[in-house]
Design a protein that fits this description.
Number of strands: 10
Radius of gyration: 19 Å
Number of helices: 10
Structural class: alpha/beta
Strand content: 15-25%
Length: 262
């Protein structure tokens, strides 16, 4: 497919989706939103892929919404604005619910909606000199569609501060509040991401998928009888699965599991 705003590369079990609008700091418009949604849905359904990296070209990771797109939105009706926002919300959900593990490789500044892209991924690694900003209130807006993911990533307390102040904060602060998992020097970014990807693709693909679903379903739930029963059912199901049986057998037999030889 001829992508207009992204590139997709594959190496072994890993796919890389690269934001490819460096001239506008990888700001997204309606085309980028549609292409990202399609890419993550297709790669999520691809049995040959075990992990997906979200990366970007140029000095910035993503500056949020494209200015020309924002100019168009200024003339939208309320209903047109709602439909437009719904597309962005669906794109973020496609990344968040993608059955494959996702890694955001943040090589530069990340603002506004770009933070939604990072937060929707399972794991995030950023360069130390990257800056982050939830700048919406400066423009009289709010970070509504990205909020379910950003609040999950950085927590309610940090979200209150940065949603309300629109302060710019550093990668070290992003790491401190849990928004990114690692902040590394620029010459370490590739290696740090490669280490994580190596770990992801070495594990049982089915177990990784179910472990991701487990976190989504259990986080924030009350410790009820229903939750206890559900988790007991999940471990019973995974133990009796083909990969569950193979994993235990290979461990006991001191050999590599079959999924490493596929």
């Amino acid at each position: 497919m001829n992508w207009q705003t992204i590139e997709i590369g594959r190496q072994g079990y890993v796919a890389t989706v690269t934001l490819n609008r460096p001239d506008v700091r990888n700001a997204f418009n309606e085309t980028a939103i549609a292409e990202l949604m399609q890419a993550f849905r297709e790669l999520g359904a691809d049995g040959s892929i075990r992990a997906i990296v979200l990366a970007a070209r140029g000095p910035a990771f993503c500056a949020g919404a494209d200015l020309n797109w924002m100019k168009k939105m200024a003339g939208y009706t309320h209903e047109e604005n709602r439909a437009d926002a719904a597309q962005l919300a669906e794109m973020l959900r496609a990344i968040y619910t993608c059955p494959k593990p996702t890694l955001a490789k943040v090589q530069g500044d990340c603002y506004a909606g770009g933070m939604g892209l990072v937060a929707a991924c399972d794991i995030a690694v950023a360069v130390e000199n990257a800056n982050f900003c939830l700048s919406e209130v400066k423009l009289g807006l709010i970070p509504a569609t990205i909020s379910p993911y950003v609040i999950r990533a950085m927590g309610e307390s940090a979200s209150r501060r940065y949603f309300l102040t629109a302060e710019r904060f550093s990668a070290s602060d992003a790491h401190r509040i849990g928004f990114v998992h690692e902040a590394v020097s620029s010459d370490r970014l590739d290696a740090a991401c490669d280490e994580i990807i190596k770990a992801l693709v070495s594990n049982s693909p089915h177990a990784v998928k179910e472990a991701k679903r487990l976190v989504h379903d259990v986080a924030g739930m009350p410790l009820s009888d229903a939750l206890i029963a559900d988790t007991a059912q999940r471990i019973a199901d995974i133990r009796s699965s083909d990969e569950g049986k193979e994993g235990v057998r290979s461990f006991l037999e001191k050999r590599k599991p079959a999924w490493l030889n596929q």
